[in-house]
Amino acid sequence: MLPGRVDIGIPGMNEILHGGLPRGLTVLLSGGPGTGKSIFAYQFLYRGIRQGEPGVLLEFEDYPARVRMNMSMFGWDVKPYEDNRAFAIIDCFTGGVGEPDRKEKYTVKDPNEIPSIVDALKTAIKDVKAKRVAIDSISTLYLIKPEMFRQTIVLIKRLLVSLGCTSLLIWQKGVTDKNLPTTYVEHIADGVIKLDLEDIGEGYRRILTIPKMMGTRHSMQKHIFEITEKGIVVQP
Predict the structure, then answer these.
(1) Closest alpha carbon to 171 in 159, 189, 158
(2) Which end of the chain is more exposed for a tag (fewer CB within 10 A), N or C?
(3) Do the domain assignments include residue 218?
(4) Whole-angstrom Cα distance, residue 44 to residue 220?
(5) Torsional sign, CA 121, 39, 209, 182
(6) Taking residues 198-210, what's their average pLDDT?
(7) Buried b (16+ CB within 10 A) or exposed e, 109-125
(8) What backbone phi and psi angles, to 5 degrees, belong to 56?
(9) CA distances from 111 to 27, 97, 158 (A)
(10) CATH code of the domain containing 99
(11) Beta-carbon contacts of residue 29 (< 8 Å; ≥ 6 apart)
């Protein structure tokens, strides 16, 4: 690992990036359904907390309890790290509805209120002294308030950079027929990682590409990757 780099935690990725992900970048992770975006983000966060880099997951897509269960299926038990203030999940999915969800420490009561989301993110990052952040997904932010999407993304990036976080912003391809939101985020992001399904006739294979990454040389080739019982593995 080169100085000033982050170990993504996904076999093959550090080689593709010629020594790891430059620290402090805000990276767009884009892909369609079934490409492994959430798993990629979970793996990135878990490697961080295992290496003494606390993390925060801002979750729009699922119940926090199910996120923990999904992570545990790969052997990533985050509950002890939550108890030790080294990891936090911000619930932007349930609005605190339901007994288990009322017990969550970080819950945005109204996921339609952008200031509440940003405040919760700032609070959680400071509480756990986070070095890694993942937002799953910013495409939901677009659906919530499309007219505020640009300024919201700029605000979030400024916050993440000012607090010294290395971050993944997940974008769900196909969430809108308009290409503008994706193009805009690709422009302001420091890096772009794309996950795709490639039709090979008798099925599909998963493909990863990196069209953009500041601060490092990186492969411009297509790379096959697999989702194994221990997480994502990329062929460098």
Answers:
(1) 189
(2) N
(3) no
(4) 21
(5) negative
(6) 95
(7) eebeebeebbebbbebb
(8) -135, 135
(9) 23, 12, 20
(10) 3.40.50.300
(11) 37, 40, 41, 168, 169, 170, 171, 193, 195
pLDDT tens column, 6-29: 999 999 999 999 999 999 999 999
Nearest to 232 by CA among 211, 200, 201, 207: 207
**Total domains, the chain:** 1
Range of the domain at 69: 24-194
CA dihedral 203, 227, 160, 4 (to 10 degrees): -120
Is residue 74 helix, strand or coil?
A: coil
CA angle at residue 34 from 199 to 95, to 5 degrees? 155
Q: Tokens at residue 7, please? A: 């170990």
